[in-house]
Amino acid sequence: MSRLQELYEEMVKLNLIANKKDFAEKFGFAYANLARYLNGQLKTTIDSENYRKFADAGINIDWLLTGEGEMFSTSSTGALVSTEVMRQDEVANIPYYDIDVMAHIAESLDLKDEVPAGVLSIPGFQDCIACFPVYGSSMEPKISSGDVIAVSQAVSCDQILWGEIYLVITDAWRVVKTVHPGVTEEYIILRSINPAYAGDTNVNKKDLRALYLVRGVVSRLGM
User: Against a cut of 0.85, is the pTM above it?
Assistant: First the structure.
């Protein structure tokens, strides 16, 4: 029996879902293929959004990935963690990817091809889909080497908030920078915060694979 099937049956038993349609909608799977996903006949790529939904529903990601530990995360009272009614000050369970995200140029990244190393529980970050460690000092003092960033869903170029910090992905690299308008509409400018790293990087919009808004930073000093 696959772990997805095991999870589905346990959630039905606990009255957390009523049927396979509920399961598919809750965790973002195509209902038409769900039966084959559950019995292992069809392999599915579980992306960062699926993992976020599993974590937010109280599913232990370590168990889902390896079969080790308990199926469900539990609160201090031993009750199943529920996010059906969730306040902004409650803890968000965000997939953590142990992948270097550089404050200077590094290789590219596609979340759909990656498996999270675990989950970070962070208050107030409910709209974030992933966390990454950052290395390099070009974004100091906002982001120091060793800090962890939390990012929200990818945005299109016409949704950019100019001057904000983004995780920028191209075919050649990934980088954390502030984003600014380019000299023409076809370009954006990537800029460091640390004045020791002067100089702009011009990027053609057609070369972008993804833009993730950095919504928060967990300092290495506070971890």
Answer: no
